[in-house]
Amino acid sequence: MGEAEVDTGRRRGRSKGDLREEAILAAAERQLASVGYESITVATLMEEAGGTRGGFYFYFRTKADAVAALVERTVSALHVSLESLSVDQPGAEPVDLIRELLVRTQAIWAEHGPVMSAAVELAPTVPAIGDRWAAARDAVTQTATRIAIQAGLPDSSASDGAAAVTALLVRMGEGAFYEATKRAAPPLSEVTATCGLIWQRCLGA
Amino acid sequence: MGEAEVDTGRRRGRSKGDLREEAILAAAERQLASVGYESITVATLMEEAGGTRGGFYFYFRTKADAVAALVERTVSALHVSLESLSVDQPGAEPVDLIRELLVRTQAIWAEHGPVMSAAVELAPTVPAIGDRWAAARDAVTQTATRIAIQAGLPDSSASDGAAAVTALLVRMGEGAFYEATKRAAPPLSEVTATCGLIWQRCLGA
């Protein structure tokens, strides 16, 4: 992801429109936490964000689009965080890189649990959200696959190859953080520790 | 699960009511595959199963209840299959037991993919289905935890204990079979192979 994309909507001197769009996303994030996706309507969003229902449609076509944009913003934050991992730096230990990846993922779940949970739940049935979520998962999987290859896993597409093993371990982490967020147990830090142990064993470290 | 429970609805000399209930479940399974949960109604089910809409309510309160019963029947089949694994038999290799557990799980996904997929998707939002699915997952996790302890993982509730590691690996398998079923790739047998490799590494075998 280039700087330009990351900067979108985050540049100095925001327009009123940027602020209004951000107010809608902020309302969506709060309402995902308080009442859940099903109970959100364009009316409830605009009541909290300020503005008319018609104003909503200047930014988004549907409620699903607004939540998809929120998911995208959230997973972009994760993406930026993971991009700065120095995966290819000489001397970086694969296991340490994975642990750092897990810690950064945990941080996003801790900060944006309701958005991440909603993404997991809605991805199968809301295409706009499913697409964003799949892209984010693929990006994490690609980063982790590079690390797994460094650790010595086969660089092949076979069932014992780095890509196949990594895809399952990334999905495992997603499910584990989701479950811990929904049940409010175990603490996310324990999920990170257990995931880290499983990764360590799989990387043969 | 006792014999009596397993036998329910499968005894010889079924009543007309048993057959009608089974026809409704069979219709639900076919319609999950053909049109999906959202498009199923009591009317579509009874049109295929034969009978009046009112007849439906003799067996189930809602569409969700009928699909929950179908999920229960399907995961019961998995449960019965896993019960016959001789987990505590002396000389049984933990890695071989896990592989057998995975192969039997794969068989259920291969035979009842639409039901299993629907269960994964609906579990977060349809309580009747979520409860059945969570119970099934817990049962598989308990069996696998006993195997992991035999393999030498710590019998503790800590983040590196058999229960924590197993819970994540079971969830990993669920997600992997789900994804492979939805995308029709990779083949389920490859998912089983990759899961088996990850389990093997985690069991230190």
Automatic annotation (TrEMBL), chains A, B:
Residues 18-78 form the HTH tetR-type domain. The keyword DNA-binding applies. One of its GO terms (molecular function) is transcription cis-regulatory region binding. Pfam families: TetR_N (PF00440). Gene3D superfamilies: Homeodomain-like (1.10.10.60), Tetracycline Repressor, domain 2 (1.10.357.10). Keywords: DNA-binding. InterPro entries: Homeodomain-like_sf, HTH-type_TetR-like_transc_reg, HTH_TetR, Tet_transcr_reg_TetR-rel_C_sf. The keyword DNA-binding applies. Residues 41-60 bind DNA. This is TetR/AcrR family transcriptional regulator. It comes from Desertihabitans brevis.
